[in-house]
Amino acid sequence: MKVLVLGGDGFCGWPTSLHLSQLAHDVVIVDNLSRRAIDLELEVESLTPIRPLGERLRVWRELTGHEIGFVHLDLAVEYDRLESLLREERPDAIVHFGEQRAAPYSMRNNAAKRYTVDNNVRATHNVLVAVVASGLDAAIVHLGTMGVYGYGWSGSAPIPEGYLTVKVPTPDGDLEREILHPANPGSVYHMTKTLDQLLFAFYAANDQLRITDLHQGIVWGTQTAQTALDERLINRFDYDGDYGTVLNRFLMQAAIGHPLTVHGTGGQTRAFIHIRDTVRCVQIALENPPSRGDKVKVFNQVTETHRVRELAELISRLTGVEVALLPNPRREAVENELNVSRDQFTALGLNPTRLSEGLLEEARDIAARYKDRADTTKIIARSVWRSGMETSPDLVKG
Ligand code: NAD
Ligand code: USQ
C-alpha cells in the first residue's frame, strides 16, 4: 500500500519509514525538518551521527533497492500544498508523527508554548481537513501519548484503552455511557495530544474518517533491524535536557560517568516501549484499521511500566555510576502507580523487547560507542514548569 509518513525524519518516524519500506509498502516521507532546526536552536546534536535525510534515502535505496519519497512540507502552515499532495499521491494510509514532541521544550518559554500548540493542533487539523477535502478513504494512524490520561489514576483498575464506561444518574435511573477517558495533561505538549483526541473524535463521527490513535509510552532504544544495516541509516538519540527521554538519558549518563539525573524522589511510574516495538505496533495498526463509521480506535502502545528511581538503581548497579536526586523541574505527582490495559496489541501478536534484553545492547552499541560526542553542558534539564523551580548546577556532582 502507499503510506505517507508525516514526521518521517524523526526518532520514531525514520525507523517506521524503513520498516514499512522493507515490507514493500510504497512510502513517502513528509517532514519540514523542524526537529533538526530545533537542534540548531538548542545548540545540541543527536548523540548518534545522523545523516541528512537525502543521504539516508540514497543509502537505503542503494542497500535495498527500495525507494522512499520525500516532500519537504510544513503540515501546520502549508495547507494547500498538503491537500494537493493527498490528491496526487492518493495514499491508502497516513501515519502522523509530525508534531513537536518534547514536554520540557514545550514549557521552555512563552514562544515554545505557543509554537507547540500552533504547530501540533494545526498540523493535525490540517491533515484531517485535507483528507476530507480530497475525498480519500485513507486509514489515519496517529502517534498520541500515555500522558493524555495523566498520572493521577491509581489503584487496581487499569487505564483502559481510550474509553471509559460511566454511569450518569438520572431521575429515571442510571444511564450508561461510553466516554473518552478524561484528559489530564501534565505539560503544554501533552495538552496538544488531548486536543488532538477531540479533533479525531469529531472527524470520525462527522466525516467517517478511519482513525487509530496510539497512546504510546516513553520510547527507549535506538536501532531497528533496518537502521542498524549501515551507520549512515542510524537513528537519532536525544540526550539533552529538553528532548532526551529518561531511560536513554540514564544510559548515556552512565556511559560518561555522569550522576544519573533523577527528578525528585524518582517515584514517578511511567510506561515504556522499545523503538523496535513502536515500528511493529504501527504496522499492526495499519493492518487492522477501523471501518468507516467506527469510533476512533485507541491502543495503549506500552510494553512495560517502571518507576524512574528503579530504572536509575538498575543502571547504577550495572555500571557503578551514582544516582543524583535533583529538585524536580516539572509539576508532577511525586509518586504514582500505573496499571495499563494493553490487551489489543498482545492479542494481535506483539512480542515485545523487554528492558532485560535490550538494555546492555543499547549501553554498549550506542551510549558507550558515541559517548565522546556528548556535550555535558546540555545534560541538566533547564526547562521549568514554573519559575523558581530551576536546578542549580552545584547540586549535580561529578
Ligand atoms: P521527533 O521530534 O524526533 O520527530 C517528529 C518529526 O516531525 C520531526 O522529524 C519533525 O521535523 C517533524 N515535524 C514536526 N512538526 C512538523 C510540521 N509542522 N510539519 C512537518 N513535519 C513536522 O519526535 P518522535 O520522538 O519521533 O515522536 C514522533 C511522534 O510520536 C510525536 O507525535 C510524539 O508525540 C509521539 N510519541 C513519541 C514518544 C517518544 O518517546 N519519542 C513517545 C510517545 C509518543
Ligand atoms: N525524568 C527524570 N530524569 C531525567 C528525565 C526525566 O527523572 O533526566 C523523569 C521526568 O520528570 C518524568 C519521567 O522521567 O517524570 C519521564 O520523562 P521523559 O522526559 O522521559 O518523558 P515525557 O516528558 O513524559 O515525554 C516522553 C516523550 C513524549 C511522549 C511521552 C510518553 O518525549 O513525546 O509523549 O514520553 S508518556 O510519558 O507516556 O506520556
Describe this structure in words.
The chain has one domain (2-397): 3-Layer(aba) Sandwich (Rossmann fold). The chain contains twelve helices and 14 strands. The protein is of the alpha/beta class. The model has no long low-confidence stretch (mean pLDDT 95). Helix 4 runs parallel beside helix 6 (110-133) and helix 6 (110-133) runs parallel beside helix 7 (188-207). The chain has a seven-stranded parallel beta sheet with strand order 3-2-1-4-5-8-12, sandwiched between helices. Helix content is 36%, strand content 19%. The chain has helices at 13-22, 34-42, 53-64, 79-89, 103-106, 110-133, 188-207, 246-256, 275-287, 308-319, 343-347, 355-368; strands spanning 2-6, 26-31, 69-72, 93-96, 139-145, 163-170, 173-180, 210-216, 218-220, 260-263, 269-274, 297-301, 304-307, 323-326. The longest helix has 24 residues, at 110-133. Residues 7, 9-13, 31-35, 74-76, 97-101, 119, 123, 143, 145, 216, 218-219, 245 line the site of nicotinamide-adenine-dinucleotide. Nicotinamide-adenine-dinucleotide binds next to helix 2, helix 6, strand 5 and strand 9.
